[in-house]
Sequence to fold (248 residues):
Amino acid sequence: MKHSNSLRRAMLSVAALMLLQGATAWAGMPVNADALNGTSGEAPPLAGSRPSLGSLTPRPASALPLAANPAEQAEAGAQGDVATLMQLIHDSQLVELRTTYNASYGASLFFYPPEMTYYVVLFQDKHFWRVIRSQDEARSEAIYADFARQTAQLADVEIRRMQLEAQKAFIERVIAISEDRARRLQADLDIARTQQARVDDYQRQVQVDARSLNAQKAQAQAQLRDLQRQVDDLQRATEAGLPGSSRR
Fold:
């Protein structure tokens, strides 16, 4: 019996030593920061006008690794709230109470009836930014109101940028239209000037021709008068001495 008790104590000592070594090895294992922070290459969780239920593939909180220190444990707990919210959205368990949009920023207030829990979400460009979980309705409403104010403030610069981009694009379109109109008017003016030059040349040539023709006409008239006188003289000479010739 004495030997049996000694053997039993020895076996218990060995088992305790093995457990202690295993716990020490577990505590010394490096923590996967990407897995803890939810940045292991997965797309950020989506949010939006009404978060697309079923489009998310949330990782359950149980899949998060154990944290090695209190700070990492707190971070893992925060990630757990996000994962819980994602799972509830995925399972269509949340009621959307309020949503505010300002440009690409938005805030939503969700309610989970089975636990009487509120989730307040701040997001930008359909990506979760902040998630607050609370069972205090008044506090949740206050946080939502604060998030909504933040979206308005944050969106001011973005809205101003969009307005400036639209104004710039509008001015550029007006410039393009004006340039095209100017090119068309210049082309018409060039054609008019070319045609005017041709008309001026034609008018000068016509005037030269008219003066030449007028001179030729005057010369022809003078020649005709001379020929008529010559014909009359010859006619009189031919009819000289004939009866009635004196009448001419």
In short: The two ends are 192 Å apart (CA to CA). The longest helix spans residues 137-239. The helical segments are 2-27, 33-37, 70-90, 137-239. Residues 1-5, 14-78 have pLDDT under 50 and may be disordered.
